[in-house]
TrEMBL record:
<dbReference type="InterPro" id="IPR005064">
    <property type="entry name" value="BUG"/>
</dbReference>
<feature type="signal peptide">
    <location>
        <begin position="1"/>
        <end position="27"/>
    </location>
</feature>
<keyword id="KW-0732">Signal</keyword>
<comment type="similarity">
    <text>Belongs to the UPF0065 (bug) family.</text>
</comment>
<protein>
    <submittedName>
        <fullName>Twin-arginine translocation pathway signal protein</fullName>
    </submittedName>
</protein>
<dbReference type="Pfam" id="PF03401">
    <property type="entry name" value="TctC"/>
</dbReference>
<dbReference type="InterPro" id="IPR042100">
    <property type="entry name" value="Bug_dom1"/>
</dbReference>
């Protein structure tokens, strides 16, 4: 399993370079970059965690680098449409965006064919953010008060249980499938469009539980309408210190987080990547930015390009196995 410490391990170089002549021309212009607005392609809809956090970072990059970072939402196909737009853009530094765990470490095992190569078609600049999933169930309909009690209760249910997710192949879907498989629970996956539909389904008693991104559930947990049994991060989450980790709750080897990197097209000149990376390091070190991220249920991260590439690579075998367990397949 991947831990935060593993991000410090040695890693391969960022993949793909542009042809030598073109790369040389780009390198000559890297010194005055950016001298015009930078397009930020967000492969997900407005209002979601990726969109919200990318907006915070883009605002900070604009201030630090002196040019507007203009956001363009290109949602669809689990982020594949937006990621294709980034991959096929000119590698001159003027197209960037967030690439999530789904884009870099899951989609290649889920889709029969992708319009881009997650390992070769991007210049990965830095880790961007991370947030855990949380095991939640409706307080009104779920008697157990601990995760182990919930497991025993779920096993004993005559018709099994149902778990929701924001879509096939998301970390919420794969986490639920892994959890049910590991604990031998008869669980039925029910895909929704997002937490805005999952939460009402649980509160009405139509859905048993979810293991979904923490950011979407903090308010309902605080209100007491949902019970939070455990978080899937390696350590307890700072804003919810009373909720145990999966390991503390009795489920070992279950560290599954949603995370995001900041990328551009393959072949971006290293001086431009380094300039963006340095700005992202300053952003992640800013306590005010970290507080804004924590308020949304996430942690702002920074890493070297090489460590970000290595992190995505180390996660792929785990998610390949999770996709296999789930039986999910997309055309």
């Amino acid at each position: 399993m991947t831990t935060r410490r593993s991000l410090l391990l040695a890693a391969p170089l960022v993949p793909l370079a542009a042809p030598a002549v073109f790369q040389g021309a780009l390198a000559q212009s890297a010194g005055d970059w950016p001298n015009r607005p930078v397009r930020v392609v967000i492969p997900w809809p407005p209002g979601g965690s990726t969109d919200v956090l990318a907006r915070i970072v883009s605002e900070q990059l604009s201030a630090k680098l002196g040019q507007p970072f203009v956001l363009e939402n290109r949602p669809g196909a689990s982020g594949n449409i937006g990621m294709e737009a980034i991959a096929k853009a000119a590698p001159d530094g003027y197209t960037q965006g967030p690439a999530t765990v789904a884009n870099l470490s899951i989609s290649q095992f889920l889709y029969a064919k992708l319009p881009f190569d997650p390992e070769k078609d991007f210049s990965v600049i830095s880790m961007h953010w991370e947030l855990p999933n949380v095991v939640v169930a409706p307080a009104q309909y779920t008697p157990p008060n601990t995760l182990r009690e919930f497991i025993d209760w779920a096993k004993a249910r005559r018709n099994g249980v149902s778990f929701g997710s924001p879509g096939v192949g998301t970390t919420a879907h794969l986490s639920g499938a892994l959890f049910c498989d590991r604990e031998r629970i008869d669980g039925q996956h029910v895909p929704f469009r997002g937490a805005a539909q999952i939460i009402p389904a649980m509160l009405s008693g139509d859905l048993t539980f979810a293991i979904d991104n923490l950011a979407s559930y903090i308010p309902v947990i605080a209100e007491g309408r949902l019970k939070a049994y455990a978080v899937t991060s390696p350590a307890r989450w700072p804003t919810l210190p009373n909720i145990p980790t999966m390991a503390e709750a009795g489920v070992r080897d279950f560290v599954v987080t949603s995370w995001c990197t900041w990328v551009g097209p393959a072949g971006m000149p290293r001086p431009i990547m380094d300039k963006v990376n340095a700005a992202l390091r300053e952003i992640a070190a800013d306590p005010a930015v970290q507080q804004r991220f924590q308020q949304t249920g996430a942690r702002c991260l920074w890493s070297t390009p090489e460590d970000a590439v290595a992190h995505a690579a180390r996660q792929r075998p785990m998610f390949a196995e999770m996709v296999k367990i789930s039986g999910a397949r997309m055309e």
